[in-house]
Amino acid sequence: MARKTEQVTVGRRRIEVSNLDKLLYPGGKFTKANVIDYYITISRYLLPHLRNRPVTLKRFPEGVFGEAFYEKDAPAFTPDWVKTVPVPRRETPGPDIQYILINDLPTLVWVANLATLEIHPFLHTAAQINRPTAVVFDCDPGEGANILDSARVALMLREVLQGLGLDSYVKVSGSKGLQVYVPLNSPVTYDETQPFAEGIARLLAQQEPKLVVWQMPKRMRTKKVFIDWSQNVEYKTTVSVYSLRAKTHRPYVSLPVTWDELSNALKSKDAEALFFTPEAATKRVKQLGDLFKPVRTQVQRFSGELRRYFQQQRVQTSKRSSAALKPYADKRDFQKTAEPKPVVARRSRQGSRRRFVIQKHAASHLHYDFRLEMH
Q1: What is the structure's pLDDT at 368?
Q2: Is the pLDDT of residue 346 over 50?
Q3: Would you list the domain boundaries of the chain?
Q4: How far is CA 307 from CA 128, 303, 341, in A?
């Protein structure tokens, strides 16, 4: 099928867009043109939250029900005018990852034309990759739970945080969960924010064991809400405020709501009140402005008491990790079962620089693993 392309002018840039009539969400017949139009309309509110933050793109070339992939390394065909920032790889050798920075409208239109439905930024900026500007609690309902259960947990989180003298802000995820953000915008590291988030999640799980879980295994989440504290680390991203989501046949938006709206939806048992279409989202921001602005501007600090707690948690975690790994290390003989070095693969057709390795296991049953670098 021929690829239909045309040129559009965005600011001072001429951008090639293609297949604008391609259906990306069957519900409401939401096309690629609609996706681009939405991101242009919402850009005034979205771009300040993305500025100078490395982002991972979640692309859906064949639509929301087609094959999708996360892309963190800028494709080989990225225009010279699109800003990128090099970030060292974690633990594995290889060139730096070239993350895209969506700092202006032309870049936003360009990534939207790649069928990027979801935009996932880091909690830090490119200038200080170990300094998050906020803490995030991702309230993720398991099987048998829904967004109203997440709302109950979010309100509990807010109460605990208020007791610590910290303001928080909430946004619906555009799916069945939501996220609570604690703005910091002050000197702090992930070594402090992650144990803080984990400690709060554990506390609520102890107080409300029938509703809240803080552990990772999915089998523990049935009819409960998992407070994902692990997002508070330099290599994980969270869906951006005002980003589209690609979870159902209809497009919904990750959008900030007020605490009163959350309480009212819970009291009236109205889950639908916490889902917003692109049309509803754009109308809402024109009326209310950016409810999430304090997340990028408000300055808050951890107390000295909290900082001492973080130090104690790091020491205890280090000891537990060493003890847990010792039996494994004692059993392995890497002279007999040395793992192969990664092999650099050709670039994928999407333009990324992903690598793969085929690993032979010299175990009781011979088998092979195929490991493909994704994110």
Answers
A1: 56
A2: no
A3: 5-121, 134-309
A4: 20, 6, 40
CA-to-CA distance for 254 and 292, rounded, in angstroms? Answer: 11
Question: Which amino acid is it at 24?
Answer: L
- Measure the CA dihedral 309/315/320/321, to 10°: 120
pLDDT at 220: 86
Distance CA 122, CA 128 (A): 11
- Specify the DSSP element, H or E, that contains 312: helix 304-331
d(CA 367, CA 69): 27
- Helical residues (DSSP H) of 99-146, grouped into ranges: 105-113
Determine the 3-state secondary structure of 322 from DSSP.
helix
- What one-character-per-residue DSSP string does 154-184 give? HHHHHHHHHHTT---EEEE-SSS-EEEEEE-
CA distance linking residue 264 with residue 253, whole number of Å: 20
Helix (H) or strand (E) holding 244: strand 244-245
What percent helix, strand, coil does the chain show, rounded to 5? 35, 25, 45
Buried-state track 24-57, b at ≥16 Cβ within 10 A, e below 16: bbeeeebbbbbbbbbbebbbebbbebbeebbbbb
Say which CATH topology domain 5-121 has: DNA primase, PRIM domain (3.90.920)
The amino acid sitting at 206 is Q
Work out the average pLDDT over 191-197.
96
Name the β-bridge partners of 17. 6
Across the strands, what pairs with 58?
70, 118
Cα 155 to Cα 170, 182, 262, 266, 292: the distances in Å are 9, 13, 8, 10, 17
Residue range 69-77: mean pLDDT, rounded: 96
Q: Looking at the domain that runs over 134-309, which CATH code has it been given?
A: 3.30.70.3300
Q: How far is CA 64 from the centre of its chain?
A: 18
Q: Cα Rg for the chain, rounded, in angstroms?
A: 22
